[in-house]
Amino acid sequence: MRRFSSGRQFGFTLVELVTTIILIGILSVTVLPRLFSQSSYSAFSLRNEFMAELRQVQQKALNNTDRCYRVVVSATGYQVSQFASRDSTGCTGTPLSPNPLSSQAFQGGAQLVLISNNAKSFYLDFDINGRASLACNGPCINVIANDTVAINISSEGYIYAN
């Protein structure tokens, strides 16, 4: 009769340990730089967010011909204000409310830059036909964060990405 030893050892094999170390190494090389980068704010996210805001303001301008809506961009963020009147150049007078309708601060060093003159501070009005006050047809605004992407505005008012 054979005797079996009850002192069996449990643990990980060398292959399991090496595989785990390799997986941890791959994750640390791909994920950690994204978490700790200087600008973790995505240019694509900011572009999509700002385009949605522009389209919403454009829709308000189309639906409320007695009011004027302005998007003001600064180096630190942007805000939307409502004015009681407009003329051929855009919104006139003072905003109807001291508080903007919406505002957004940039994060992680992100910024919006007007392509025509590299201005970081500018404003954008829409007329009653939905056309933007910026005199551009094509790439108008650069979104700069971890990448640089452009927002295009056509002369007819269509807002789109490349």
What is the terminal-to-terminal distance? 80 Å
The largest sheet, given as strand count, sense and whether it forms a barrel, is:
5 strands, antiparallel
| Percent of sequence in beta strands | 25-35%
Low-confidence parts: none
**What is the approximate shape?**
elongated
Instruction: Indicate the structural class.
Output: alpha+beta
What share of the residues lie within helices?
A: 25-40%
The ordered string of helix (H) and strand (E) elements is: HHHEEEEEEEEE
- Average pLDDT over all residues: 85
Number of strands: 9
Helix count from the secondary structure assignment: 3
Radius of gyration: 26 Å
Describe this structure in words.
- This protein has 162 residues and is an alpha+beta fold.
- The chain contains three helices and nine strands.
- It has helices spanning 14-30, 32-35, 43-63, and strands at 68-73, 77-87, 90-95, 102-105, 111-114, 122-125, 138-144, 148-153, 159-161.
- The strands form two sheets. Strands 1, 2, 3, 4 and 6 form a five-stranded antiparallel beta sheet that branches.
- A hairpin with a 3-residue loop joins strand 7 (138-144) and strand 8.
- The chain is elongated, with a radius of gyration of 26 Å.
- The mean pLDDT is 85.
